[in-house]
User: Fold D-alanyl-D-alanine carboxypeptidase from Corynebacterium terpenotabidum Y-11.
Amino acid sequence: MRRWIIGIVAFLVVVVAVVGAALVVANGRGTDVADAAEIPAAAPALVAAPVGDDATGDADATAAAEAVAAALAGPAADEALGQLSGVVTDVASGAELWSATPDTPLVPASVTKLTTATAALLTLPADDRVATTVLAGTTPGQVILKGDGDVTLSRTADSGFFTDAASIEDLAAQAAAALGGQPVTSIVVDNSVRGGDLFNETWSTEDIEAGNVAPLGAVMIDAGRLDSSDNYSARSETPAGDVGRALAEALGAADVPVTVSDTPVAAAEGDPLATVYSAPLGTRIRDMLLYSDNLLAEAVGREVAAARNQQQTFDGATAAVLDTLSDAGVDVSGAVLKDCSGMSADNRLTARILDGVLALAAGAPVAEDVTLTGDPAELRLLFDALPVAGADGTLADRYLSGSGAEAAAGRVRAKTGTLDGVNTLAGTVTTDSGRVLTFAFLSNGSDQEAGRAALDRLAAALREA
Assistant:
């Protein structure tokens, strides 16, 4: 229980700090950051007594549940929501305050990324980095570009989409120095870490041009974006080859042949010619959730699979994510994951699973037979990574004036999800009384625009609970 209370206090500090920080963050991805005057910072929350400790705790939980039920009665009945599943939990006490068919598996869309991020933080250290290496080949002038799975590479230090990304420019400078003037005659991209499993069978190739997916290369520039300044840019159909060609150009050998191999490529003996490292896992998870980047989510899922000694494939990654959550005490019964990003319409999650993930991140107590791996405090990075309503990421243009949800701007931090007929939202909200709640809402069979707006109003209503 002591860890739970300490975790709550630390979580509340994070909530207040990151909401304030979101008001001044630079606009580097084409999203408009709302005026600070329009987004009130979250107030510090009170730490409620754990439910069941005494009569006061029971009465407080009952009153809170009644307040939430009253606040959600109208918004939850909105027909624009279609089929609704949801859970609301009090962070301080761990009490479930409201639910609606919480164990019904529905299509989760991009809130799936919450499961991927949580599994990664449970499995890997927050400072874990992914290497990209240049090796000398077995024939004179041959250069091998070996990727371990970094999809966030940039062409130059200041041109990339992602935060603190490693650059091809740096990689080439190191390699050129090591080559000492030896001409480059060919470049081979070693794509073998992906096991040949590059494009999910449940995805549509039309979503490459739409900017949602691409073949999952062992190395990628800006996760395959053709325009690094645009989150929603069309993606490349040949991302691994693009990196090889960018390296050739940076080495002054733009005309040499570049090939991609899905099987391991033999290298000459000796030290690497060059190595660069991705940003730490915590930074990449923030980018993944803030911009809902599907390829970064898939790459992180493969890292979880590797850490659990499972195949680095779509099946291996999704199994690793669910196994990790199960080991941490989250009941994943009914869960079906075909990918780690939520692009698959065949995924199924319940609101209770998503709420359980958020509770873990908030420091909720786990069963006596459960031992969390890694540092539990690092799980709170999940909340730091969630977009702020009306301020940044995928919530930058929501909860604005006239939306009907503007009262919760700056109070809601949540991961969004959208597919045809699917709208989802899961995260946290601070009420006017200072209570911090987690929520998970899944809406299936809903219109994209109307359903999304109705979900925002549903979460916003919690502010008055």
Summary: Residues 1-55 have pLDDT under 50 and may be disordered. Residues 131-279 form one domain.
